[in-house]
Amino acid sequence: MSESSVSVSELRLRDHLRALFVAAHVALITLMALPNPRRINERDLADPALQEVFSDWREVLEAAGVSLTPEETNTLVMSFANQYMDARAVVLDPVRPYFQYTGANQAWQMFGYLNRTPARLSVEVLSQGGEWSTLFLARDPEHDWRRALFDSERMRGMVNHYSWRERRGGFRMLADWVSCEVFLEEPNAKLVRMSMKQVQLPTPDVLRETGRISTRRTYWPEFRYADDCIWIDDSEATE
Predict the structure, then answer these.
(1) How far apart are the first and last CA of the chain?
(2) For 100, how many CA atoms within 13 A lie in the half-sphere containing its CB?
(3) Given CA atoms 176, 180, 182, 186 in this order, what sign does their dihedral have?
């Protein structure tokens, strides 16, 4: 008897179980893929970037005849987000071991809103003559020292935390390594400064008119001298 002539009732039990497993897997993965904004508190709501997003949505709602104050918006968002996360936990927590075992767990949160004041990694050098120059500035084609490294997925993922002012200790460790690499390639360098330069994303019309993104301020400056580096003689290390 050919496979095309086999009726549903004649399918073996394992075929039904396989179909049930695939359907359950797809359903669970779909639920896991739903937005995961995490629980929100008062500190989160104070984020200026988030408040700008709320302001945009209030304008949209007001055009539709719905008016909300900033306080009402905060209360509504916090209530909805936390109730949503509670319901999500009830559904997904019992099956998290399955996600862990199959490797289907979502290890990071998706972007919930646009950071309109992001920061870019900057590496600058002070020459022996006392002049500062920029070696690297993220997303700037004119200052592209080690761009392939800094544009790699893992490096950008790490630097992204610094743009949100997270993991200051890791930033200091990166400054240690970067500065020593600079001194190896720039014998005239006297001092290396690595920092994060916060920018203000302009509106499309302003960007078209000016063609540039201005820096608002600089934070987390880290200074390193060549004496701060520990140099290892490769010939001695291989003996």
Answers:
(1) 72
(2) 6
(3) positive
> Shortest CA distance to 141 belongs to which of 131, 128, 151?
151
Cα separation, 180 vs 228, in Å, equals: 8
Structure tokens of 87? 């319901």
Residue with tokens 């905060």: 74
DSSP class of 130: S
Asked if residue 66 has pLDDT above 60, the reply is: yes
For the chain, the structural domain boundaries read 11-102, 119-229
Given a contact cutoff of 8 angstroms between Cβ atoms, the answer to whether 77 and 54 are in contact is yes
pTM score: 0.65
What are the tens digits of pLDDT across the range 127-177? 988 999 999 999 888 999 999 999 999 999 899 999 888 899 999 999 999
- Residue with token string 């009732």: 9
pLDDT digits over 115-127, tens only?
Answer: 778 899 999 999 9
3-state secondary structure 136-193: EECCCCCCECCHHHHCCHHHHHHHHHHHCCCCHHHHHHHHHHHHHHHHHHCCCEEEEE
In angstroms, rounded to a whole number, what is the distance separating the alpha carbons of residues 54 and 214?
24
**Cα 222 to Cα 39: distance, rounded to the nearest angstrom:** 33
Residue 48 belongs to what H/E stretch? helix 48-63
Q: Which amino acid is at 231?
A: W
* Residue 139 structure tokens: 């997303």
Task: Write phi, then psi, for 109 (nearest 5 degrees).
Answer: -85, 145
* Rounded CA separation 213/176 (Å): 28
**How many whole angstroms from its chain centre is CA 61?**
29
